[in-house]
Design brief:
2 copies of one chain form a homodimer.
Chain A (H helix, E strand, L loop, with lengths): L1 E7 L1 H4 L6 H12 L3 E8 L3 H12 L4 E5 L10 H9 L3 E3 L1 H13 L6 H4 L3 E3 L3 E3 L8 E6 L2 E6 L3 H19 L5 E10 L3 H7 L1 H6 L4 E6 L3 E10 L2 H19 L3 E4 L4 H12 L3 E5 L5 H7 L8 E7 L2 H6 L5 H6 L5 H15 L3 E7 L13 E8 L5 E6 L4 H22 L1
Parallel strand pairs in A: 1-2, 1-3, 3-8, 13-14, 13-15
Antiparallel strand pairs in A: 4-5, 6-7, 7-8, 9-11, 9-12, 10-11, 15-16, 16-17
Amino acid sequence: MNAEIIAVGSELLLGQIANTNAQYISKQLAQLGINVYFHTAVGDNPARLKEAIEVAESRSNLLVFTGGLGPTKDDLTKETIAGHLGKELVFDEAALHSIEQYFVRSKRQMTENNKKQALVLEGSRILANDHGMAPGMFLEKGSRFYMLLPGPPKEMQPMFDAYGYVALQEKLTTKELIVSRVLRFFGIGESLLETEILDLIEKQSNPTIAPLAGEGEVTLRITCKHDSQEEAERLIDEAEKAIFERVGEFFYGYDDTTLAKELSKELGKHGLTISAAESLTGGLFQQEMTNIPGAGNVFSGGVVCYTNEVKQNVLSVKEETIANDGVVSEQCAIELAENVAKLIDTDIGISFTGVAGPDELEGHPVGTVYIGISIKGQPTTCEKLLLGGGRSANRSRSAKYGQFFLLKELQKL
Amino acid sequence: MNAEIIAVGSELLLGQIANTNAQYISKQLAQLGINVYFHTAVGDNPARLKEAIEVAESRSNLLVFTGGLGPTKDDLTKETIAGHLGKELVFDEAALHSIEQYFVRSKRQMTENNKKQALVLEGSRILANDHGMAPGMFLEKGSRFYMLLPGPPKEMQPMFDAYGYVALQEKLTTKELIVSRVLRFFGIGESLLETEILDLIEKQSNPTIAPLAGEGEVTLRITCKHDSQEEAERLIDEAEKAIFERVGEFFYGYDDTTLAKELSKELGKHGLTISAAESLTGGLFQQEMTNIPGAGNVFSGGVVCYTNEVKQNVLSVKEETIANDGVVSEQCAIELAENVAKLIDTDIGISFTGVAGPDELEGHPVGTVYIGISIKGQPTTCEKLLLGGGRSANRSRSAKYGQFFLLKELQKL
């Protein structure tokens, strides 16, 4: 199966957004063993979209569309495809119901144009939209397949993962399975990780090992083609073992997990509760911990202590610490971690203080970060980081380092 | 002049990188008044690249290529174009010299394949590469223009800005500019907003008005083509005024701003400081406020009060409030807002309490949210929301609603 991804939206052609949907879908199609030969972006213009469809049909047998499924007059992807393929648009009752329910729930007024989103190509398989209103579609005609996905990545990605992937998998003629496992690493750069395991990557052909850099972390995807799931898993286990012998200390989890999820699980396993005192991260660590359903079982709360006054008055950092060591210091991090655990009454306190940027602070360069970890019954520890990113990246990596350090500590218990 | 941007590189089709070059060049071409009708991405494959060139020539008269100018065997953009146009590749002495100098400076050995980068299409105008080795090219043949740019954005962007832009400008017969302005709205859905201004959208042809849904917010893009920047701005002002008469209450800012940025600015204008008490949002509001450089001038800190104990013990919510009203209540939101302002010692306290999901709480359905706002010298207010999203969306929209409500309050001061 050869694929072309067609993104529809004038905002792409005006450069207002990048075509990240094409990137996401390409990755997923690669996992399915489907070759992607072209990406196309076209505006909200039916004549040019039709032209793009005709060109794509001349060279690919799977056409994946993103965008143009919304309620407004600009949104015309399915209308254009319907016209081109000679198909009718019909109301999908389930989608219509779910759109109506959305407006009932949010007590907002439903306008007539919202109904348009429940129109689908006749004879298509519906891909439910669990994060928005417009359903996706999958259609087979002649020797070709057409998949229609919404434009917003927050709707498109979960829809593709939950329904699009399977719909394609069922159509693949080969009975060879593609089994893949993602290993997630933190605290090691992509190029260093690749250097450490380069010989493994080069000598492997089945399974293959592919590194991929993410947001401040690195993942390795091990992919095995085999007609037996069991045998594929065994081959992947072997590859994983060889990788862990080299870089196991940086591994933290599999597939779609996150550091915050792994940390929550580990806290739950030990029956421990945690609180946080955040200066430079400004609530980011707590935000990530509480984004997990059921967070309240392990996370109680914390303090964002952005100013020196809050550090002193709410978290009782000693006046002499601020005068002598400054707030960007090991001593300050230790007091913050110990005192927030006392204030919030938790087993563990974690603290973040440092310089996010763009300006230096107390003579410390941007990227200087201290993370304090206080675990009941153990001496409080502090890790110092020197990060090289901009403000946002420094904040985000600090929060992740905190999760990683604590996770590794708890795994030793 | 109608343009198509052709990105060459298998890494795009494998989803390893996003096509940010197309986005960058599109923005620049829009400024020049050049319409971009298509983006194409194609792999490092001469046959398919030739196919893409032929398709592009059938519908555009400016073809901008990125990628495939490097030293390796995979890099074949100029070779393919040369073959297609019947042009020779010749050594550009300046480029060759600059490549040799690079290796002298970096004390590395120059391999033979590096010379290949100094080969250029005969008769083309050279676009110097001030940040790398491969020069760009600009070529006119018949009624068409061909621009070849390197793939790495760090080389491509400065080359386009310094040399590509001017080369195109000289060829433009019209001096028409495309001026656009983005208006950002919150608290109104995309379809309702469109319904309110549908007649304006439909009757306008210059400027045009186009809605775009973002993450929990809606934007309108007003775009005007005109040979005078001043007149374009005046026409945009007029359209904006008509829009504001209908939906001005939901407007919060222009272009690339965010609610948090506008709120920070407004707080700064009034010389007011703020703190936050966050239950369901778990630090998200504070995270967004502190992500802005210089946040400390208006934001002092706050408390994440995820459990009832933290609400009572740290933020002094009354026991009878929790017993009688529950934590998902107006009374709890009011006490949290007032008490966090006292604890952190700020002019304003804002609070978030409610049910993010997936489970209901105290008999309240998922999406029930109370936002308390305490402004020094004014009676504390509370807004109730009923949101219809999943956990993450409910948290994110709650934080944004808080920013929006407070921004609107401050604008009245």
